[in-house]
Amino acid sequence: MDFAPDTTTTEITERVHEFLHERVIPAEPVLDEQLAATPHEWGFRPVVQDLQAQARAEGLWNLFLPDGPAAGASSGTRRGAGLTTLQYAAVAELTGWSPRLAPVAFNCAAPDTGNMELLAHFGTPEQQERWLDPLLDARIRSAFCMTEPDVASSDASQITTRIRRDGDDYVISGRKWFATGAMNPDAALLIVMGKTDPDGPRHRQQSMVLVGRDTPGVTVVRPLSVFGYDDRDHGGHAEVVFDDVRVPATNLLGGEGEGFAIAQARLGPGRIHHCMRGLGMAERALSLVRERARTRSAFGGPLAEKGVVREWVAESRIELEALRLLVLKTAWLMDTVGNREAMTEIQAIKIAVPRAVQRILDRAMQVFGAAGVSADQPLAEMFAGARALRLADGPDEVHLASLGRAELRRP
Amino acid sequence: MDFAPDTTTTEITERVHEFLHERVIPAEPVLDEQLAATPHEWGFRPVVQDLQAQARAEGLWNLFLPDGPAAGASSGTRRGAGLTTLQYAAVAELTGWSPRLAPVAFNCAAPDTGNMELLAHFGTPEQQERWLDPLLDARIRSAFCMTEPDVASSDASQITTRIRRDGDDYVISGRKWFATGAMNPDAALLIVMGKTDPDGPRHRQQSMVLVGRDTPGVTVVRPLSVFGYDDRDHGGHAEVVFDDVRVPATNLLGGEGEGFAIAQARLGPGRIHHCMRGLGMAERALSLVRERARTRSAFGGPLAEKGVVREWVAESRIELEALRLLVLKTAWLMDTVGNREAMTEIQAIKIAVPRAVQRILDRAMQVFGAAGVSADQPLAEMFAGARALRLADGPDEVHLASLGRAELRRP
Amino acid sequence: MDFAPDTTTTEITERVHEFLHERVIPAEPVLDEQLAATPHEWGFRPVVQDLQAQARAEGLWNLFLPDGPAAGASSGTRRGAGLTTLQYAAVAELTGWSPRLAPVAFNCAAPDTGNMELLAHFGTPEQQERWLDPLLDARIRSAFCMTEPDVASSDASQITTRIRRDGDDYVISGRKWFATGAMNPDAALLIVMGKTDPDGPRHRQQSMVLVGRDTPGVTVVRPLSVFGYDDRDHGGHAEVVFDDVRVPATNLLGGEGEGFAIAQARLGPGRIHHCMRGLGMAERALSLVRERARTRSAFGGPLAEKGVVREWVAESRIELEALRLLVLKTAWLMDTVGNREAMTEIQAIKIAVPRAVQRILDRAMQVFGAAGVSADQPLAEMFAGARALRLADGPDEVHLASLGRAELRRP
Amino acid sequence: MDFAPDTTTTEITERVHEFLHERVIPAEPVLDEQLAATPHEWGFRPVVQDLQAQARAEGLWNLFLPDGPAAGASSGTRRGAGLTTLQYAAVAELTGWSPRLAPVAFNCAAPDTGNMELLAHFGTPEQQERWLDPLLDARIRSAFCMTEPDVASSDASQITTRIRRDGDDYVISGRKWFATGAMNPDAALLIVMGKTDPDGPRHRQQSMVLVGRDTPGVTVVRPLSVFGYDDRDHGGHAEVVFDDVRVPATNLLGGEGEGFAIAQARLGPGRIHHCMRGLGMAERALSLVRERARTRSAFGGPLAEKGVVREWVAESRIELEALRLLVLKTAWLMDTVGNREAMTEIQAIKIAVPRAVQRILDRAMQVFGAAGVSADQPLAEMFAGARALRLADGPDEVHLASLGRAELRRP
Which residues does the UniProt record annotate as the domain Acyl-CoA oxidase/dehydrogenase middle (chains A, B, C, D) (predicted)? Predict the structure, then answer.
């Protein structure tokens, strides 16, 4: 057992750390200004493109994507940055310090990352050429259409969207929501999960198809907000109706009936990313708290000398240290024995990290008083993000039940 | 000891309950439509005025205000509805079911209620005629300018706003924020807390003055948001700069040096109202959860049959029943022995209720999945409100420390 | 609504309070000495009899028992003290300050109280004369044999003890445990729950019979401990085997098939008593903490000035005030509308109070350091008692599930 | 970073695991019988000596002790087993499965381990020969006399025990308590902390001396219990009075004024051991819960199918996995950069692990019902041990405050 990061990790995190503090965090107020000047747009503002150009020039690009045969299939060249899941995890944490800017600056933002992974792993060369390459180039963005408003979508057997084979086409009908990024007109690709075989075995009913945003029958109905945030800086969260949307059969991702398995495959790395970004948000919050507690006084002394504030930061530090190790171990398991063997840990971090981050952010807001819930600090928006993560990919309780069931089956 | 509500309470809550369910809750989507149609306005939309007219016609008006000599001074007639704090508490809970509409429908919304109480208790006949009467008539609104961005305002000794006597005038200089309602152009009255005697005894340095919104030197700088919500439907939360604002000395509320005492007096009833509304929000949430849990299924059965959902609603019910009693007892103490003797309880409910409501709303959001954090359900916005209450009037920790100190002094 | 205690309550609690502080608490070290001198005995030590004599002389006797027709049937005189459940609740809280001595001093200790209630409500005149009168006189004690080691006894349908009718007798076979008090040789009466009709409707299978301790076939097998406490001062907790124990059919309590209903009836008042005593234990703990925090110093000042200690006592005070009101309201409901209508509240207090008391005691132990977990302070033993209450009458989770189910059924 | 245990760890834990399950756990009922047969003795029963003989024969002996120059000084041979802190940590976890027997079987039980470490690190060859060798041989036992009844002993500046130099002797006067193991007549060595220089710098006032149990003036006053447990199987917890106890000056451990530093040095490995044993206790509890939940039914199905039980075991699994990693990383830091650099982590695990173990044991007791709090299951006794750990070496709050202060000082 060795808890020291390897040299690749040390080197890449130093570079990302520098980029974060020299370029990304100073760009946050620029984004706010550009957002205020363009209140009705959905998608990236110029500051993002600037950061992307710089990051790309420095080779800090697509760091999330491991290399692999599929990833290089269509072009014969390496696409990913060659980092392991464990190595990228440390990078992902740093991007959490500035969740609106850092992930997109490095072209490492959800949901594109997950979608690119799917295309790299399961896409045909043609699919990769058409969708993966422009995504890796940040020329387009994408959305993942899984959740439906009318059913508990964490239970995949309840999905109602239909994908019917009709000659050389698939015809898609259904209603999806919380398709993150889909308000962005640049989100050219929608990956849609639906049922091709509603009467098949429970986990073989579903398939995934690639749908161009401009395909007839696709309607982006409305944006949804998370708490009061519409997240229009990156493309929001959309409700999308598919009304007899017809795509060629070659747009199927993987095989028929593999939709559930593909969705599961997507989750593993995504959770590492989400969790590490969450820890990064919490570290940023703690950093803000430290500064605040040293400089703000009340009732006779700086907040840093209040027993309760000390206890909060101590509790936060303990939680962060323990949970980071758990996420890193999960990443290591994924790299060494694979996602299936890491199932307990993948569920564990999905449950434990977002709520801990929420708790840490809650304490941080309390230290900041009214400023903490306002837009003058990033805390409340981070809180909303962490809170939403407890529902993303299914509510924690589904995973707790599954983890508990597995534990109770152990000999 | 008798836990049965008296007949006045029973009668008034029945009427308010009916009004709430027949008129207010059905008006919620109307408000949403009117807000969507007027995205740049701050203040009431027409649906509010409609509800106010109906409520007034039914005598459900200014229910929060007890009668008293001061209250009737200028007009010779009863102004308040004659309810005790305890009796009104039951009404306040019901208004929490629809926090954007019900309190304003009955002219019982913060911060006007607290401001009207101050004018009724401490105002001169002239002040009452000029400000209290139009507030009681809902012809104007008002704001309370206490919190400052640069200091821990829960520690009144840190207030930096200055109120200097200059001949027959007071001259006010300072910066306030989170002045709820002050973005509303109808908020004609600002009650401002500042220091008239910065070198006086700690709790005698502060005074309060009445400032017309259109007085030269008053600048409403910008709106502040709470978890992404700008609360423009009622007037938002503003940062306000007072730059040598000159008002006649007769605008002093109470005497010089009484600002802290007046602020304290304002808090007692306000906390009853806040807490009871919070319990009402939680009851609404539970009501939504019941409906959802009966009709939504996942993994083989309705949510209502999941052990975890059952436990959540049970825990929520227990917390609500216990805390409601504590708030009601506090109201009863205020009615019988006065705010000073009820200090422990007033602090206790301020601490215990908002966080319990936050917890209940958090569980409710979890039952609703993605819908829970969106604007399709009232939960996330209620959550933001409950969360902010943990900071309003000073963070909970200030009150915990004070309550703990008092407890440790008991023999 | 009126939160003031009535004059009866005020008067009786003053007398009990005085007795508690003048006689009972000073007797605690005497009990410790007598226990140390008689390490192998089970049952009351002389100090208990002394206190009982004094309490009886002062009319502080059998305060738990309301008057009623059944209660006076055999003797023509009033047996109970005439207090309502609500009035006695305040007394019960005071007895919690000294849980080993105060309840027994007033002849108000479980399980005798519950057993006396059963005899008063359901007993025939003959049963009352034989068992109730000596219990009311403290000439004998009793045990309640419900829980079985081999099944989840909170699910009454799982009870395996058989009560077979055989001519004019019932014959009992089964194994019970945690029969509190049954190690005491003076526990002359065992009330045993078993199945007379194993194939009947779920809640009509059970009956209760009165069994003299010396009936052939009754074997008290062994004592059980709670944490490391054997509770021998009052009679411990026994495992008891019933091996073809034959009693006359007239020993049936109530009718055949009424065992479950009778057990339920027993629970209501018992929970009020348990919960109020729990609150009394917590108040005693807080009182000890106050004294300790004022007199003990660490790292530069008394514990009373540490932020964390202040927060603990504040949290404890809040919990106590809210939960006391909930228990008192439950008692009031039982007095006014009956146990059935108070079901939600009875379950709520059973769940909420013991765990709050446990939490308060846990914090108190932390303030006391090593002394807190030792026998030099009453905290650890009280903690064990509160912890056990979370299992008594079925684990909390059974009640949470039931309460949640009922809540989810509400319209 | 590499989360795989090395081969030494794998090999030693396999052997310990086998010994644990084949010999130690089956010996638990034997210990109970031997304890019941000798209720008045303090110290090991024969079953312990049997296990020690077997463990020693298999080379599973003194595994806690790393090799080092000091350790081999007096005999020229290796004394320790040559395991690193990280390697031994995995062993310590396994010993937690049977806390009364496994640590002593391997001669790895507190407080002897810490005392042996002190002698190995700071003892002179003569001290090592006289005390360390027989301890390593399990011919004697030892106690650590630090905590005092009259002061907050976590604040070393408050220690009142005096160690005065008098010619070639030291003379010790003071009162200690919770000297674990000191009731055991075989505890031949008492290591006593006291002040040699009460007016010196805060952390240079204290020294440690080695005191033979039979030195005149040493009185073992009485045993202390922890939640009713007197822990007589290994030597209990004693109050010890030192009344002008005279020892030769060569009995000083380390130098004058080094008592505080030595005490701190003792804490690091001790916390790893305590925490890993705690995790082992929790794993044992989970293992018992799994068995129980599969075989016990209530209300229509096995406990394993209840949502709440599933959630409990899931939560327990998550906590265990995260905290184990944190303890292992702490051990790794101690091995690689030293205790001083690992201070944050050492404090973190001291705070986080015992309370998590307490929580897990609390849930486990709840699954077991009444059996859970009784001596029929090991849960309640383990709970008492975990609870006491939250006070050992100073209450958690002292460490939280220290950790928080350090965190707030970070840039």
Answer: 143-245
Q: Nearest-CA neighbor of D164 among D108, D107, D217?
A: D217
Give the pLDDT of residue D129: 96
Chain D residues near residue C374 by CB distance under 8 angstroms: 178, 224-226
Condensed to tens digits (0 to 9), the pLDDT of residues C173-186 reads 999 999 999 999 99
Contact between residue B166 and residue B112 where contact means Cβ atoms under 8 Å apart: no
Put simply, the chain D residues between 291 and 330 with a CB less than 8 A from any chain B CB are: 306-308, 310-311
Q: Tokens 């303090």 identify what position?
A: D42
Which single residue is written with the structure tokens 């149609």? B37
Residues of B in contact with A355 (CB under 8 A): none
Q: Does C61 touch chain B (CB under 8 A)?
A: no
How far D315 CA lies from chain B's nearest CA (Å)? 13
Same domain, A133 and A148: no
Distance of CA C186 to the CA centre of its chain: 18
Mutate to test the interface with A, among C306, C308, C313, C315 (most CBs of A within 10 A): C308
The tens digit of pLDDT for each residue in B53-68 reads 999 999 999 999 987 4
Q: Could you give the CA distance from residue B368 to residue B370 in angstroms, rounded to a whole number? A: 6
Same domain, D30 and D133: yes
* A184 plus A221 within the same structural domain: yes
Q: Which residues of C touch A308 (CB under 8 A)?
A: 307-308, 311
Q: Give chain D positions within 8 Å (CB) of C226.
A: 228, 373-374, 380
Domain end: C242, C257, C272, which one? C257
Partner D contacted by C233 (CB < 8 A): no
- CA D78 – CA D61 distance, rounded (Å): 12
Task: State ipTM.
Answer: 0.95
Same domain, D253 and D204: yes
Q: Does residue C217 sit in the same domain as residue C312?
A: no
Answer for the pair A225, A177: CB distance below 8 angstroms, yes or no: no
How far is Cα D330 from Cα D35, in angstroms, rounded to an integer?
A: 37
For residues C184 and C322, state if they share a domain.
Answer: no
Domain count, chain B: 3
Q: How is residue D64 written in tokens?
A: 């806690």
A21 touches chain D (CB under 8 A): no
Contact between residue A182 and residue A236 where contact means Cβ atoms under 8 Å apart: yes
Q: Residues 329-358, chain B: which have Cβ within 8 Å of C?
A: 329, 332-333, 336, 344-345, 348, 351-352
Rounded average pLDDT per 10-residue block, chain D, 411 residues: 97 98 98 96 97 97 76 52 95 98 97 96 96 97 97 92 98 98 98 97 97 98 97 96 98 97 89 97 98 94 95 98 98 94 95 98 97 97 97 93 96 88
List CB contacts (< 8 A) between D306 and chain B. Answer: 307
Which residue in chain C has the smallest CA separation from B313?
A: C404
Tell me, yes or no, whether C93 and C132 share the same domain: yes
A9 and D3 within 8 Å at the Cβ level: the answer is: no
Q: Which residues pair with C187 in a beta bridge?
A: C141
Q: What is the pLDDT along chain B (411 residues), one digit of tens a residue?
A: 999 999 999 999 999 999 999 999 999 999 999 999 999 999 999 999 999 999 999 999 999 998 744 444 444 455 778 899 999 999 999 999 999 999 999 999 999 999 999 999 999 999 999 999 999 999 999 999 999 999 998 899 999 999 999 999 999 999 999 999 999 999 999 999 999 999 999 999 999 999 999 999 999 999 999 999 999 999 999 999 999 999 999 999 999 999 999 998 888 899 999 999 999 999 999 999 999 999 999 998 999 999 999 999 999 999 999 999 999 999 999 999 998 899 999 999 999 999 999 999 999 999 999 999 999 999 999 999 999 999 998 899 999 999 999 999 998
Touching D: A residues 75-94, CB under 8 Å: 86
